Amino acid sequence: MSTTLYQQIQQFYDASSGLWEQIWGEHMHHGYYGPNGTYKVDRRQAQIDLIEELLRWAGVESAENILDVGCGIGGSSLYLAEKFDARATGITLSPVQAARATTRAQEANLGAQSQFLVADAQATPFADNSFDLVWSLESGEHMPDKAKFLQECYRVLKPGGKLIMVTWCHRPTDVVPLSVDEQKHLQEIYQVYCLPYVISLPEYEAIARQLSLQHLRTADWSTAVAPFWDVVIDSAITPQAIWGLLSSGWTTIQGALALGLMRRGYERGLIRFGLLCGNK
After folding, report:
1. What percentage of the chain reaches a pLDDT higher than 90?
2. Is the four-CA dihedral 187, 201, 63, 1 of positive or negative sign?
3. CATH code of the domain occupying 3-279
4. pTM reported for the whole predicted model
5. Half-sphere exposure of 242 toward its Cβ, with a 13 Å CA cutoff?
6. Span between the terminal Cα atoms of the chain, in Å
7. Is the CB of residue 64 less than 8 Å from the CB of residue 88?
8. Integer Cα distance of 115 and 28 in angstroms
């Protein structure tokens, strides 16, 4: 990963993670609002529902050794460690996030079965065939080399183990290429959220097919998660949140101002929520 992008992502999450935890809680990812996006559940429950629905969709009923790629402050890692009584390892580019995740693990009495490291997802410090579940929830969009990222996930997966990757995508472009306006919209999102670029779900599937993943499946859950951005925008305009934003610096303020970019991206069908799973 290029040093500049690495530093930008690190600084973005170092600066903003404390605020997002304060406003949103420990899960720094979309929520699930039912296949048609109509379920009326609170935001935190929707985020837990997303984890559960992903496990159900991917057919995961147990795991012993889990890698959470792009772990944030350990939301998914600790949830999965507790659910499956498993060992969980989380990696992030942010030392602030890794430290907070470690503290949260200790508070939840999960310190002995979890660890959080600062590591590059495209070159992890793990041996081949180390994990029976590799979980990547909304981190693929940050990866500058999508193929290298998936190759690394595959490398550390045990034979028979499962990869679940969920990531922001743009719409498929095999029939109609992205318009100039769509490209501009994406560029604005990239700039704010420190993303090099995103690709479509069919492009991810093509990369995964090169890896010989078995039982490969993909799905687009855009409709199920799109209401999340309305909820987030509502939660970001409370007095507490606005004060927190002003205290955390300009990049975080830009991130909050750009929430509408994501909402509009879903509304126009440009931003897609892509799922991919398969076995080694």
Report:
1. 79
2. negative
3. 3.40.50.150
4. 0.93
5. 4
6. 25
7. no
8. 18
